[in-house]
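hey can u check if this looks right to u? its 289 residues, i copy pasted from the old doc so theres a chance i mangled smth
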Amino acid sequence: MTHALALPTRLSAGSLDAYIASVSSVPALTAEQERDLATRLRDDNDIEAARTLVLSHMRYVIHIARSYSGYGLALPDLIQEGSIGLMKAVKRFDPEMGVRLVSYAVHWIKSEIHEFVIKNWRIVKIATTKAQRKLFFNLRKHKKNLSWLNESEADAIANDLGVDKSAVYEMEKRLSNFDMAFDGHQDDNTESDELVHTPATFVADEELNPASLVETHDQTTHNSSQLQTALSNLDERSREIIAERWLSQEKSTLHELADKFHVSAERIRQLEKNAMNKVKKELGFRLCY
């Protein structure tokens, strides 16, 4: 059935106005005609009956779609999504329920349009939970003006819609934001080479730049190698003093090293100074080459 309903019909006019005029020219069904067509579709899978039900109710799809024109989306797109909802309703409609098809189909039409609006109103989807969806479609009409909500207004909206006040504030903040290109020009049609302050200009972490990481690693390895070479030219005692005083996480004091090597603290200081001078001289010599 779905494939047949998706086929082009005579209502595919060259313009939106002509399409709407064509839809309006399709006569409405009486309750008896509607029940007969729905029964034929249910019992015999009558595709022509389904087509008639859809076309005769397209006027309601257009009416509902127009009520969502304030979201900045094209009306033909809204009508198309509403038509999908109508076809789903026709497929599931039971003529024995005792209600008219239009009453049953309104939910399906709005559901498809809601999903389309939420997906396309912003690049980033701003309403994912049931409470957020409710606020997205009702918050603006509950606001009395364009200013930010005060506490009493937020409380009233939260009570009317059955959501938390924090959710009201969060949705108000989301609705006030706008999309921004990650990089490039603010306007793709601009002839200026000047870039605007888009996220690409300030979110980059230069510390994680691959080239910088490799360069830093190579420099660290080189310096460590040079230091180890310089230390290897010292005598064992001087090398240990330098390691304990400069290279260890828990650095030893002069007195601790004096006790260890059975000399005075002043002698340790002299040995340290002489060893540091030799290391600096060795490193300076090697850096020249």
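The chain has three domains: 12-121, 126-180, 210-285.
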